[in-house]
User: Fold this.
Amino acid sequence: MIDAVEDLARRWPTAAPIYRKLIRPLDVAVIGMPSSGRATIVRALHRSLSVTAVAAGPSTLGADADISLYLLVGRVRAGEAEAIARLPCDRRLVLLNKADACGPPDVVIGVAERCGSALGTEVLPVSGLWGAVTVTSDDAALLRDIAAGEALPARFAAQFAAVDPRRANLLGRIGRQGVVDCVEEVRAGRIAGNPRDFDQLLRRRSGLRQVSAAFAAMAGPIAIFRQERARTELSTLAAAAPGQLRDAVEHVLIGGRR
Assistant:
């Protein structure tokens, strides 16, 4: 169908928007309650994956998007199960965002599994913060200094940030668990501690690779959705078009080219 619509759009510019929707990058609606981190996930998707992503509120379900991402934070809140159920089941993905704030990986997995059990669907843990951040040379130098210095107490955020404004800024950029993970990797000698090392570490642990794999698994339903949408839009175009354009569109709709 794509080739036929391309031919149609080349001869009739009125059909060009329909063709562009068929071939555009993956279109993702990021949905969630206030403070669920929608804007951060959008930035992370733009940075790490070849997608067009937009943030939407819980009542805006992104009906025209290829994929709907629903963001949970910590638990399933009132009304979220119903909002998720309204999304197309073959083109939706539920994420536990801000997973870095839940603690170490075993705790994060447990939270995601409890959310998944409550919803009856898989929930992938992600950190939009880690996927979106760019570690600066100043960040990297501070992380190396911390790694060379004091041991980090189990719950260190308040006193850690109070010592130096730079530390408060670092916590805001990569979170408590991000600081812990980066420092541990430097101390273990697994990374040298330059900005690229930290960027790659955080992105690898952000969960976005699993999101990318889930997107790839939806390729079939997405193709069907795009073609059905194109057929609907072509039918609308044919109904309002003059004679030659109407004939050309109807020819495409019955499976031919003209």
User: Anything to note?
Assistant: The chain is about 60% helix and 10% strand.
